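3.2 Worked example (two chains)
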Amino acid sequence: MALFIDGPASSIDDLTAQDAQLLDVARVENINLTQKLALAHEELAVEISSLFARLRYSEEAFWRTGPVPIHSVVVTRPLKMWHTFRTLEMTYADAYNSQLNDRYAGRRDQYHASARWAYGKLVEAGIGMASDPIARAATPTVAVAAGNLPDGTYFVTTGWINWAGEEGAAAIPAVVTTAGSSFLVQPGMPPSNVTGWHVYAGPGPNGMVRQNASPIPAASNWLQPNVLAMQGAAPSGGQSPSYLKPTPRVLQRG
């Protein structure tokens, strides 16, 4: 599971899985769904930060370890559903404000109720937290290098690893084309709590597998051998929660 700070918890595919007509509505009403996902993510960030602040002051017994930073929050299923439904609510609110169409108002209200339900489930279950959070890696720098890898186009991604061997979410992949050569992967500057990293490569974005047998030291680059591994672990989706932070029920605004 990705960290909350890695970016929007849901994708357009998650939205359309809930609402098959959404793409048509967005096209007709000229609504940018990518922007709506980002805006909903920002709103949830404010809500989560506000929840932490309220609980620190009103329910001190729950927070004896001190402030909990939002960068430790893991995207659990209830949190992802909250983001999905909040994005749909915002989309149909925008569509209704444009056309004053009662059908859009009905969808807006439906997803508002669904967002509140998902928020309630999040509070009921607890907020997923990572004890040693590893942020999503940035897209690596991949360059042609000496070698004899089969000619072709390769997709390459990376993932940071912490001292416990937990891996953060994989980076958006880079693409490199080889001809009588191989490629060199530079992961960039590691976060302070990173001890190493993994590299994944494959002929397509859905066919990448781990190429290194053991973690690569954080300060090192990776030169791809002349043989591409075709079986192995897929890129990581991120850390699982180390624990669930219990939260007293506090009603969401609105």
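3.2.1 Second chain
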Amino acid sequence: MFDSDMRIHREDLETVVASVFDTMMGLEVQPWSEPYPGSAGMLTASVYLTGEWKGAACVHAEPLQACAFAGRFLGVSAPQSISDDVRDVMGELANMIAGNLKCTLAPGIRVSVPSVTDGPEYSLRICGTRVIYRAGFHTEAGPCWISLIEVKAN
């Protein structure tokens, strides 16, 4: 999903995601056309950006994939269930993606500490925003989705 006034190009996001996943987990990512399945049971890690551009970068993954990512990131066997380590890794992935993207959005952007939402049912709503981009990525450890959310101009 793209808007004409969006300040980031799909290629920028794909490059950042590929770099973070390769560097931190040794995983090759490919764009994936499967639709975003929603939040039932998924983990969502978010980092908020403020400054000239305001919004958030979110990483979404099913629990099995989040555990696989955590194992690869930490260099250990994949955890069997969601733990603080899994949440921390998801938050760090969102942090790295947001940190690398902030340079392409506008000068002087600041990032928040990551937040992670998970559980069998949750609804994540960042008030006054719109999703300007959402894409799926596939790895040998499973899929994930990245959302860029922008604060609506008044």
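3.3 Remarks
Strands lie at 30-32, 43-50, 55-61, 110-111, 115-117, 129-139, 142-151.
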